Amino acid sequence: MSLHSGQENLSKQDVIAKLQTAGITPTQQRVTIGRLLFARPQHLSAEQVLGMVNQVGEARVSKATVYNTLNLFARRGLVREVIVDPTKVFYDSNTTVHHHLFNIDDGTLSDIKPGEVTVVGSPTLPEGTVVAGIDVVLRVHSKQASA
Amino acid sequence: MSLHSGQENLSKQDVIAKLQTAGITPTQQRVTIGRLLFARPQHLSAEQVLGMVNQVGEARVSKATVYNTLNLFARRGLVREVIVDPTKVFYDSNTTVHHHLFNIDDGTLSDIKPGEVTVVGSPTLPEGTVVAGIDVVLRVHSKQASA
DNA sequence: ATTGGTGCAAAGGATTTGCAGTCTA
DNA sequence: TAGACTGCAAATCCTTTGCACCAAT
């Protein structure tokens, strides 16, 4: 990878390498989406990705390809789907174990700092199942006069 | 409430009382839905509620009314919305604090027994927000040969 | 040439909404 | 009767799908 593989920006090469490592053919569209997504930890909806990608203008990417790509990245573990808003899925470029804070009022999703919240206990699983992941979501309201 | 307010069945009177306590006008449709929903702890989708209601046949209930009613019940705290499946919302008639187990493969939602899992810690909240609730979702796969 | 990937538009499914008719208080 | 509620269908919104075209081996 390049010399500046920090969190500010990723070179095409970095993204191509990352995709190949994950067994994904690095097409132009996927690299474009990857550069945006992997630049830093963030939570984006498909719609937001579509908007950002076509603003950067590196390559025209269709809605279908955005969805296909995000699903592919999720299956391959490059992003994590976050299901907290009944109206849309968020894709989280931070794949390390961490939990979320969702503002019900404005639809904002943010991270809970690592270590601030921990899940204790090992529940009995239904027969024939294995754990795929644990999600903790703290739902918050914007403080204001309300019913 | 009636003498048999256990978990097997609820009389219309019980449900009417419950709705009124929550400040909800007990219409025929709402009572019908409530009897089904509050009969025992369960997780139902709007579609399932619609199906069950019109099978019982106490009163014809339209799809729109099922949605309106479930949203109303949720706002008034009679049921809890569970957001775990990106394709639909589950309504949980158990409003006590508890967490869930979601089978990604078959879309099944079940409860984690009380006490088996606990959340520890109090994260810093964004300014101007208050906690509305905490959800813990353990996602599981059906055990089988897979990629 | 073959296989995989993309774009476009149409299809799909869950949920909401508008409005006229109906019921509750 | 007045206001709230319901039903029906149309409208929305997010996401998936079908198919023809383009790209890479």
Distance between the termini of chain A: 54 Å
What is the strand tally of chain A? 7
* Low-pLDDT residue intervals, each spanning 5 or more residues of chain A: 1-7
Helix and strand sequence of chain A: HHEHHEEEEEE
How many strands, what sense, and barrel or not for the largest sheet of chain A?
Answer: 3 strands, antiparallel
Strand order of the largest sheet of chain A: 1-3-2
Q: Give the proportion of residues in helices of chain A.
A: 25-40%
Average of per-residue pLDDT values of chain A: 90
Radius of gyration of chain A (Å) = 17 Å
The tally of helices of chain A reads 4
Structural class of chain A: alpha+beta
Shape of chain A: globular
Query: What is the percentage of strand-forming residues of chain A?
Result: 25-35%
Oligomer: homodimer
Pair with the biggest interface: A-B, 41 and 41 residues
In short:
The structure is a homodimer of 147-residue chains. Chain A has 147 residues and is an alpha+beta fold.
Descriptors:
disordered N terminus; three-stranded antiparallel beta sheet; homodimer; 147 residues; globular; three-stranded mixed beta sheet; 31% helix; DNA-binding; alpha+beta
Summarize the structure in words.
The structure is a homodimer of 147-residue chains. By secondary structure, chain A is an alpha+beta fold. Chain A is 31% helix and 28% strand. In chain A, the strands form two sheets. In chain A, strands 1-3-2 form a three-stranded antiparallel beta sheet. In chain A, helix 1 packs across helix 2. The longest helix of chain A is centred in the middle third of the chain and has 13 residues, at 63-75. The A-B interface holds A 81, 83-86, 89, 101, 103-104, 110, 112-113, 115-126, 128-144 and B 81, 83-86, 89, 101, 103-104, 110, 112-113, 115-126, 128-144.
